[in-house]
Amino acid sequence: MRELQSQSPAFQQALRQSERLRIYLLLALLAFILVLRGTRTILAPTPDNISTLYMFLTLIGVLGTIEFVTLYKLGRAIRESKPMPKTFWFLNIFLEIALPAVSIASAASSVILSGYRPLANPSFLIYFLLLMLTILRLDPALSALCGFLAAGSYLAAAYHLGWRPFEQSTENSLYSPQKNVLTYGISLIVVGVTAAVVAREFRAQVEVALREAETRREMENLQHDLDVARSIQQSLLPRSMPQVSGWDIAAWNQPADQTGGDYYDWQPLPNGKFVTALADVTGHGIGPALLASVCRAYARTNFRNQESFLKAMEEINSAVAADVREGRFITFVAAIFGPDSSNVELLSAGHAPLFLYMLKQDRFDLMEANALPLGISDTFASDPPYCLELASGDLLLLATDGFFEWANAREERFGTERLGQTIRAARERSAAEIIASLHHEVLRFAGGTKQMDDLTAIVLKRV
Question: Positive or negative, the Cα torsion across 204, 210, 214, 220?
Answer without folding.
Answer: positive
